[in-house]
Every structure is written in structure tokens, then in C-alpha cells.
Write a structure and sequence with these properties.
With about 450 residues, this protein is of the alpha/beta class. It has one domain: Divalent-metal-dependent TIM barrel enzymes (TIM Barrel), CATH 3.20.20.150. The protein has 14 helices and 12 strands. Strand 1, helix 3 and strand 2 form a beta-alpha-beta unit. The structure holds L-rhamnitol (RNT) and zinc ion.
Length: about 450
């Protein structure tokens, strides 16, 4: 602004001599300064931005309605998982859930996937039990995904159902109950394969069952024999395009003493049956390092699925945030060149804050962690280690923590045409006022 345009106090100040006037060039922006800083460490920020744009995150539909689903009569949440909070405005219909997802996706940079549960089908006027679900019940989701260029992932729902009310499904002592759930598993696998075929992008069908005991079992073996047998029956038929994953867990509410599908059970199952293993970050002892598992299991498995979550003291499924744990998870995937062998998915549910914001915060946090991992000078870091120079390794690791990645992230958002910084929250507030607050 010229001095004449706005008479102000500055007019009283002595006029700078012409020699002291800085040349009228635009100062370098925060991004170009950061790019130079990274480049001095041998890191190409442009390459990092290009790679990040190709990484889809499988966004879990169930954050939008507190794991409710759309079955007739809407079962209470079961299976040892729990959602707390009563923030208004949760989605009540597939249309509402899709609209909320669209809002969230418009604030998340990049192209992504949506992860559905079998209980989220569109079942029409008559109740459809779990042993009768079909690809037809997911037509609406498939055409929506197609029109938005999204991939889909899928999960059979082995909880929130009268036949799961005693905490057992595929490992149930009753043959009839097992048979019911085996049929659900087979049909879910067919739905997943049909989704993948329709969208031209393979759908992972992820199997998690809650089966376990509240108190010390007398027999730890038989339920595991039954679970292995049930899974084998589900996976028996060769199915073109099926990509199956299995998800272990340490404990759940009501299964504190014993979970049939433990980490060892499913790791061995996945290796012997050539299935994908799903690592959920809330499913281990709180002091276990989930990031450290990736390079171990990928020695023997072609692929893993991540359910990125945030447990606070237990498997509480808090919204994912950018913390050390998330950063080391992303770092292990990127630094080891595993981006093609790790499917990135989210799994959390918080009903105490705006649910659209919960999706945006968690997904952007994971993407930011991936970006920081992509900006790591991995070769230089590894060289210190091969040289046995652990002093420099530690010094460099510390230095990396305060490099200017924020400006690179904002550049990514700008190029992907989504709000950078906190600007997205205004859009969520406007949506809340116009749409969410009108829901009873
Ligand atoms: C439960 C598992 C499972 C579920 C979803 C809803 O502990 O993490 O993945 O959270 O399937
Ligand atoms: Zn999970």
C-alpha cells in the first residue's frame, strides 16, 4: 500500500532513503523455503507430494453413525466394542451417511476409499438377516462409490446381533450358531468380491469376530479349533477377486480373559492360509509397538491391512491424531518401501465430537504422518547406522523432528484444492448448522 493511499502515523516517520528501499520482488513463500531446507538434506519435496497424492486411505463408514448400521430394528452395539458420547446429528440413513462422507471427503486431500460393514446395506421393506445379505443390498453404495471415484472395502458384521449376544460367533459351541455365521462370512466375501469387480479396484474383506470369555476359560483350545474350522469353511470356495484379511485382538469388553482370535492365532492362520493380516493399533498391549510389527510380518506375508486407531489406556478407538505412535507407523511403511504392500485403513469411533470433523481430523492426521515419512532422508539416516555412528543417527533423528513440514502439508492441501490449516473447520460448522443440527 502506498503512503498516499492511507494517511497514517507512519507519515510522521522519517522517509527511508531510496537506497534503503527493498527491491519489489515477492519474498519466497513458506513452501519454497521449506523445499530448499529439505533439498539441503537430499529430500525432494515435489516427489513426496506426488507420492502422497497416490495414497488412498480406507475411511471407515462407522464413525458417521456410532457403528449403528441400517438393519431393521437397529441392534444395540455389541461385540465388546463401545462408543461413548452423545454429540447431536449422527447419520440415520444411507443417504445421510453418504452426504456426511461427501462433506468429509471434500475437506480431505487426495482420492480415497470407503470401508463398509455388512450391517450398512440397504435392505428395503423386509428385514434381511445376516445369513441372507447379498451384493444387491449394496447396489446403492457401489453406484455412489463409482460416481465419486471411490474404492470400497468391506467387513462381515459378527456383532450387534441376537446370535452373537453371548459373545461367540464362528467359535460358538453350538453348531447351528456357527453355521449361521459361516453363511454370513461366505456371503460377505461374495459381496466384497462383487464390489471390487464393479469398481475395478480390489475390495479387502476383513474378518473380525468378537469371540472370547470374560473369565478364565477351562478350555482355551476347542474354541480355537472351531474358529480355524469355521474360517476354513468360509474361505474354502475359490472366489475370483476375493481379498481376505483377518484381524486379531487382545481383549474386548466382556472378553477380558480370553480372545479366541488372538495375535498368534491369526498370524499363524494368515501365513498358513495366505490371507492378509489386519493390524489394528488398538488391539495390543498398550506398551507394544505396532509399527515394529510391520517389517516382521511382511517377511512372511505379501500384504497387511492397517486399522489405524488410537487406544487411550484400552482399545478405546479415539480419533487418530498426529502423535509419535502414528508417525512411527507411517515411517515404517514408507522407509521400508512397503507402500504397495500395506493397505491403509482407519478404525475409530467417537460420538463426543462432530462426526464429520472426526473423519477429517483422523484422515488428515494419517496423511500428514505419511508426508513426514516421505520427507525423511532415509538413506542418510541409514548410512549413519551402517557406519556404526549412532551418535549422528540420534542427532539426525532429533533434527528431523522440527523440519518445516507444515508448509509442505499446506502446499499439498492447496494443490489438492482442499482448505489448508484450520480453514476446513468453518465448512464443518456451516454443515452442522445447515444439515446435522436439523436431525432429531
Ligand atoms: C473391533 C475391531 C473391528 C471393529 C470394526 C467396527 O475391535 O477393531 O475392526 O472396530 O469392524
Ligand atoms: Zn479394527
Amino acid at each position: 500500500m502506498s503512503a498516499s493511499a492511507k494517511p497514517s502515523k507512519s507519515q510522521k516517520a522519517p522517509k527511508p532513503s531510496p537506497a534503503a528501499t527493498p527491491p519489489a520482488v515477492k519474498p519466497p513463500g513458506a513452501y519454497s523455503l521449506s523445499r530448499e531446507r529439505y533439498s539441503s538434506l537430499g529430500v525432494d519435496t515435489e516427489a513426496a507430494l506426488a507420492t502422497l497424492a497416490t495414497l488412498p486411505v480406507s475411511i471407515h463408514c462407522w464413525q458417521g453413525d456410532d457403528v449403528g448400521g441400517f438393519e431393521h430394528g437397529g441392534q444395540a452395539l455389541g461385540g465388546g466394542i463401545a462408543v461413548t458420547g452423545n454429540y447431536p446429528g449422527k447419520a440415520r440413513t444411507p443417504e445421510e451417511l453418504r452426504a456426511d462422507l461427501e462433506k468429509a471427503l471434500s475437506l480431505i486431500p487426495g482420492k480415497h476409499r470407503v470401508n463398509l460393514h455388512a450391517s450398512y446395506g440397504e435392505f428395503g421393506a423386509k428385514p434381511v438377516d445376516r445369513d441372507a445379505v447379498e451384493p444387491a443390498h449394496f447396489k446403492g453404495w457401489i453406484s455412489w462409490a463409482k460416481s465419486h471415484g471411490l474404492g470400497l472395502d468391506f467387513n462381515p458384521t459378527f456383532f450387534s446381533h441376537p446370535k452373537a449376544s453371548d459373545g461367540f460367533t464362528l467359535a460358538h459351541r453350538s453348531k447351528a450358531v456357527r453355521k449361521f455365521w459361516i453363511e454370513h462370512g461366505k456371503r460377505s466375501r461374495e459381496i466384497g468380491a462383487a464390489m471390487g469387480r464393479a469398481l475395478g479396484s480390489s475390495t479387502v474383506t476383513n474378518f473380525w469376530v468378537p469371540d472370547g470369555f470374560k473369565d478364565t476359560p477351562a478350555d482355551r483350545l476347542s474354541p480355537r479349533e472351531r474358529l480355524a474350522e469355521s474360517l476354513d469353511e468360509i474361505f474354502q470356495a475359490p472366489l475370483k477377486g476375493a481379498v481376505d484379511a483377518v484381524e486379531p485382538k487382545l481383549f474386548g469388553i466382556g472378553s477380558e480373559s480370553y480372545v479366541v482370535g488372538s495375535a498368534e492365532f491369526y498370524l499363524a492362520y494368515a501365513v498358513s492360509r495366505k490371507k492378509m493380516l489386519c493390524l489394528d493399533s488398538g488391539h495390543f498391549h498398550p506398551t507394544e509397538n505396532v509399527a515394529d510389527k510391520i517389517s516382521s510380518v511382511l517377511q512372511f506375508l505379501p500384504e497387511v491391512l492397517l486399522h489405524v486407531s488410537r487406544g487411550v489406556r484400552w482399545d478405546s478407538d479415539h480419533v487418530v491424531v498426529y502423535n509419535d505412535e502414528l508417525q512411527s507407523l507411517a515411517r515404517e511403511v514408507v522407509a521400508n518401501g512397503f507402500l504397495k504392500r500395506v493397505r491403509l485403513g482407519l478404525d475409530y469411533f467417537d460420538a463426543s465430537i462432530n462426526r464429520v470433523a472426526a473423519w477429517v481430523i483422523g484422515t488428515r492426521a494419517l496423511q500428514r504422518a505419511l508426508l513426514v515419512a516421505l520427507l525423511e532422508p532415509t538413506r542418510a539416516l541409514r548410512e549413519t547406522e551402517t557406519d556404526g555412528d549412532f551418535t549422528s543417527r540420534l542427532a539426525l533423528q532429533e533434527e528431523l523432528k522440527t523440519l518445516p513440514f507444515g508448509a509442505v502439508w499446506e502446499e499439498f492441501c492447496a494443490r489438492q484444492e482442499v482448505p489448508a490449516g484450520l480453514d476446513w473447520i468453518g465448512e464443518v460448522r456451516a454443515y452442522e448448522e445447515a444439515v446435522l443440527s436439523k436431525r432429531a
